[in-house]
Amino acid sequence: MAQLIWDMDGTLLDSTHVVPEAFVTVAHRLGAHDIDRDQVVAAYSRGVPEVILPHLVGRPVTDPEMSLYYECLRGQHIEPYAGIIETLAEVRRLGQQVVVFTGASSRAARILFDAAGIDVDLLIGGDHVQHPKPAPDGVIRAAQDAGASLANVIYIGDAPADLQAAQSAGAAGAAAAWGHLYDPKAPATVTLRRPEDALSLIGHNTVAASHPHVSR
What InterPro entries does the database record attribute to this sequence (predicted)? Predict the structure, then answer.
């Protein structure tokens, strides 16, 4: 049975505006008035907020300054993508944990999941691994903690870095085509058009052989 591992931003949660706006707001408060959304998104590959924010403002930040970012997140309204709540409920009904690996910090992830009303059984944040995506560290760690073989893991994410992380780990990569960073040119084992399409993958051990492409 294939073990699903989910990305968070752009896969489970529609964070198109919420996360960048929180970074922009705090960067402006800390004096970096030229920072915009595009610069924030471009910095995602650097890893957790504790790395991204100092990069954006061009200097180290203090703990109280870093806390401003998390306070901004708590004040935001965020929604799961359509079909996510129902899909995760069905994942549990089929006997699986809801497993998430996100490049965001686990602190940020818990704030956002609480706001969106999503319960996660196993959460691996960017603060739990040494190297951010597209390195395979987080996929490997999530698989280990879930007790799954990487050969039977499907990492579902919208961004090319998600799919690269899956490939580097020796897992299958499922492109979440509903996400805001989805790139149809990025190599994926499967492409999912809707969250519920992932359910058809759970019963298969060899994803690439069983589902070369899922498109509805």
Answer: HAD-like_hydrolase_sf (IPR050155), HAD-like_sf (IPR036412), HAD-SF_hydro_IA (IPR006439), HAD_sf (IPR023214), PGP-like_dom2 (IPR023198)
End-to-end CA distance of the chain: 23
Say which amino acid occupies 117: G
- Gyration radius from the chain CA atoms: 17
Burial of 38 (0-12, 13-18, 19+ CB in 10 A): exposed
Give me the CATH code for the 3-14+81-210 domain, please. Answer: 3.40.50.1000
pLDDT tens track for 31-81: 999 999 999 999 999 999 999 999 999 999 999 999 999 999 997 899 999
Kindly list the domain boundaries of the chain, sorted by start residue.
3-14+81-210, 18-74
Task: Provide the 10 A C-beta neighbour count for residue 118.
Answer: 20
The DSSP letter of residue 2 is: P
Average pLDDT value for the chain: 94
Sequence-ordered list of residues with C-beta below 8 angstroms from that of 122, at least 6 positions apart, any chain: 97, 98, 99, 100, 142, 145, 146
Using a 10 angstrom Cβ sphere, with 0-12 exposed, 13-18 middle and 19 or more buried, the burial of residue 33 is exposed
Rounded to two decimals, what is the model's pTM?
A: 0.92
How far is 12 from 81, CA to CA, in rounded Å? Answer: 6
